[in-house]
Amino acid sequence: MPVTDGKAGSVDTVCLRVGEMTPITDPFLTRIGVATALTRDQAEVVRRLQGRLQVVPPRTTIVRENASVCKAYAIREGWAFAYKILPDGGRQVVDFLLPGDVVGFAGLFSNIAAQSCETITEAELVEVPYAAVRRAGGQSSELMEAFLALTSRERDKLVEHLLDLGRRDSLARVAHLLLELDYRLQSVGRGSPTGFACPISQYLLADALGLTAIHVNRVLRKLRVVGLLTFRFGHVTFHDLDRLIEMTGFDPAYVERSSPSLAPFALPPARSPAEAFEPFHARH
Amino acid sequence: MPVTDGKAGSVDTVCLRVGEMTPITDPFLTRIGVATALTRDQAEVVRRLQGRLQVVPPRTTIVRENASVCKAYAIREGWAFAYKILPDGGRQVVDFLLPGDVVGFAGLFSNIAAQSCETITEAELVEVPYAAVRRAGGQSSELMEAFLALTSRERDKLVEHLLDLGRRDSLARVAHLLLELDYRLQSVGRGSPTGFACPISQYLLADALGLTAIHVNRVLRKLRVVGLLTFRFGHVTFHDLDRLIEMTGFDPAYVERSSPSLAPFALPPARSPAEAFEPFHARH
DNA sequence: CGAAACGTTGAATGGTTTCAACAAGAGTGG
DNA sequence: CCACTCTTGTTGAAACCATTCAACGTTTCG
Prior knowledge:
Chain A has 284 residues and is α+β, with helices and mostly antiparallel strands. The first copy, chain A, contains 13 helices and 11 strands. In chain A, a hairpin with a 2-residue loop joins strand 10 and strand 11. The first copy, chain A, is globular and about 55 Å long.
């Protein structure tokens, strides 16, 4: 439910094309703008929420569980994941974070990180200080509404993840997650219906899906031999999208509901096809 | 981070004691007030958000997945649960809803219900129309912030649920859920450290925990014979709270973080002890 | 070159499900 | 009032899925 400021209707949604307007890619603004149409002024306020830009190497811990935090991070480029560690040493990956995603927004209230977050690939992060968010949000209910929509979307993703762990068998579980990741990538101008570059190790996949890395390996082999999909050398290829969607019960709607088709405008396609689809292939 | 309006500090948090101020129990106001301290005026606005009060029998579907919705429901009394059905017929319970909880808030943006919701016991529900929420929220960023906190809390619950399904064995899974429910009840003046009245069937428990009802039955028997807890005839009794907390890795903090110790003020204790702890015992 | 992370495979073990059956209480309709 | 059904709880045995243990090859990186 876009909130306008009383000016002309369509002009208000400038933020959705900000990627064309400014030389800088602005994933945070994009995400906010997807949720709620912003006026030019509001878009500027959101843009100013952003602090320092960091470029961090792979396997860097950005946020540590239970540590005190004072800012969120918007992912401009690269992959990361949020996770929790159990007393017995087990690890549960809560969510994968792709370009355009925001991590650590939940800490806005407690100032305590609910999960740890670590980069998978090299990543560019934009800091979003809570103080600035509170200041701006306190003056604009439209902004607060946008933040609410952001959190609401996170909730939807978690529910879908819950279905994976609770009621899908291991084949469907793996396939469903990979489908979701591809659709999320497509919503920000990466990926394609035929497949995508996926820097996730089998161990990580296992910890996201409540399985063993060993079993994930066998599941992937099975998915390959039955001609559904191939995940090898950091690349996922879908061989039979229709059958995959049918067997997993994948519903693209829950991805799209939160990121309308306008989203691709906001994040420009990666610089070169090779770089876009195989940025880490060399490591294998 | 309570947001005040500039008047005297402590006077602003009137809503937390609203249960003492008005003869009517107001779970919605309570929940909102727990998240953000509200001024007297804001509390009044929140109070007016609420529409009709419904009393519905057990097994009533309140919201149907994918149906269009125009309001949320605050649970004033009774138990309900939110769930999704998979194409293969499987059911996944996403969350149990206790007095003081709000269901269907996520539909505020899509106007489409993300999950179905059904009552377990007889329940009293207060309607909260989206239109009213948007109107009030649009004029007050503090309110929007409170709604954001509400959704953020839901996210925390889902993450904990995710840990259950992904990385806890069936014993710990069952025990952890029952512990969580008791703590949530305690935060609204029900339940006790020794146990609580629990109207959940083994089938429902199974669908929440990604198990079979048959297996849940065996797990409950095991929990009983090893002296950890008893769940029979609609009542959960904890025999060794310390050992339970240790084996499940239960962290009361994530319940409390979202519902401060002030909460018990808001929802008055149930009318009589017998009614409070065994409202459905008679059915067995 | 050695260490560390990742991928791969086999065999044995064990936790969960499936199938089948029965008991008990609640509610319904003749 | 009494069959009758429906829901829930309970148990046993067989089948299956996933884990554990163990081992080995590969690639990457310092």
